[in-house]
């Protein structure tokens, strides 16, 4: 019976120590009065660069000698910036040139470049043409400036000849 009391005392002491330890751990985890709550860090995503260069003609068909107005505009994805230093607009070298520049007088302008940018061309001969555009600038989506080109192209534009030939049958009287 003495052994039973000794065993009971030991078990009671161990249980009391376990309860005291649990209480101490609970107090250590509880914030002190006036302490700031723990902050949770939420990772953010860096925007992905995207840009579209649009080339919009004022019409799809015109006559030789008439002028075409082409508007170049740039749309940049949300969260990024893209200042441009150069804007180029021309017919592809694989096509026969059927337009000449009026304003600006060449196929390249440099900064500062206001957008939308309006270009005027004169149709010089009949045919079908497209225009290609290119910007050169620096993209910035996450604090780093990186050189970037953006390309675009127009829909096909048709130039019609102003000369019309009409062939009528000839009626002749033989004498």
Please describe the topology of this protein.
Blueprint: H1 2-29, E1 51-57, E2 61-63, E3 67-76, E4 84-90, E5 99-103, E6 108-110, E7 117-123, E8 127-129, E9 132-139, E10 146-153, E11 157-160
Parallel strand pairs: 2-11
Antiparallel strand pairs: 1-3, 3-7, 4-6, 4-9, 5-7, 8-11, 9-10
Describe this structure in words.
Keywords: Signal. With 175 residues, this protein is of the alpha+beta class. The protein has two domains: 1-29; 51-160, Sandwich (Immunoglobulin-like), CATH 2.60.40.10. The protein is 16% helix and 37% strand. It has one helix and eleven strands, in the order H-E-E-E-E-E-E-E-E-E-E-E. Strands 1-3-7-5 form a four-stranded antiparallel β-sheet, with no helix packed on it. The N and C termini lie far apart (160 Å).
List keywords for this structure.
175 residues; alpha+beta; Immunoglobulin-like; 2 domains; four-stranded antiparallel sheet; rod-shaped
Number of helices: 1
Shape: rod-shaped
Elements, N to C (H/E)? HEEEEEEEEEEE
CATH topology (level 3) name of the largest domain: Immunoglobulin-like
End-to-end Cα distance: 160 Å
Q: Brief description of this entry?
A:
By secondary structure, this protein is of the alpha+beta class.
């Amino acid at each position: 019976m003495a052994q039973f009391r000794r065993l009971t005392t030991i078990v009671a002491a161990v249980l009391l120590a376990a309860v005291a330890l649990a209480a101490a751990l609970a107090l250590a985890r509880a914030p002190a009065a006036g302490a700031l709550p723990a902050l949770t860090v939420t990772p953010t995503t860096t925007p992905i660069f995207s840009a579209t260069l649009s080339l919009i003609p004022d019409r799809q068909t015109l006559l030789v000698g008439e002028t075409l107005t082409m508007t170049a505009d740039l749309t940049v994805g949300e969260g990024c910036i893209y200042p441009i230093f150069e804007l180029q607009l021309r017919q592809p070298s694989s096509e026969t040139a059927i337009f000449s520049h009026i304003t600006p007088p060449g196929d390249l302008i440099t900064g500062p470049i206001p957008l939308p940018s309006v270009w005027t061309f004169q149709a010089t001969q009949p045919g079908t043409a497209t225009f290609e555009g290119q910007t050169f600038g620096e993209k910035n989506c996450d604090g780093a400036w990186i050189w970037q080109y953006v390309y675009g192209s127009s829909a096909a534009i048709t130039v019609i000849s102003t000369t019309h030939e009409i062939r009528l049958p000839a009626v002749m009287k033989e004498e």
